[in-house]
């Protein structure tokens, strides 16, 4: 998907967070970050996350995953302009959250 960083993205992210909470998301912890430069103004930041979830039956599960963020240096600041992640819906089904 492609979108513009603005009010629409904020609304979509708010709905996304609500959906994760409805699935049982309790906590997301950043475990590690590694950076691979592409050129002087771009890099890929691989962020390893650990998510704690509560299933409908009350049991807990932790899911570890990585997301690759595409980062650009613009006006002296770092900006995320995209990301690449795996099939989270399949992971949620595999762990009994869907």
Descriptive report:
This protein has 98 residues and is of the alpha+beta class. Helices cover 24% and strands 53% of the residues. It is built from two helices and four strands; from the N terminus they run αββββα. It has a four-stranded antiparallel β-sheet. β1 and β2 (42-54) form a beta hairpin. The longest helix is centred in the first third of the chain and has 17 residues, at 7-23. The mean pLDDT is 91.
Strand order of the largest sheet: 1-2-3-4
Secondary-structure element order, N to C: HEEEEH
The percent range for helix content is: 10-25%
Low-confidence stretches: none
Quote the distance from N terminus to C terminus. Answer: 22 Å
Largest sheet: 4 strands, antiparallel
> Would you report the number of β strands?
4
Name the structural class.
alpha+beta
Overall pLDDT score: 91
Number of distinct helices = 2
List keywords for this structure.
98 residues, alpha+beta, 2 helices, 24% helix, globular
What is this entry, summarized?
By secondary structure, the chain is α+β, with helices and mostly antiparallel strands. Helices cover 24% and strands 53% of the residues.
Give the arrangement of secondary structure elements.
Blueprint: H1 7-23, E1 25-39, E2 42-54, E3 60-74, E4 77-85, H2 88-94
Antiparallel strand pairs: 1-2, 2-3, 3-4
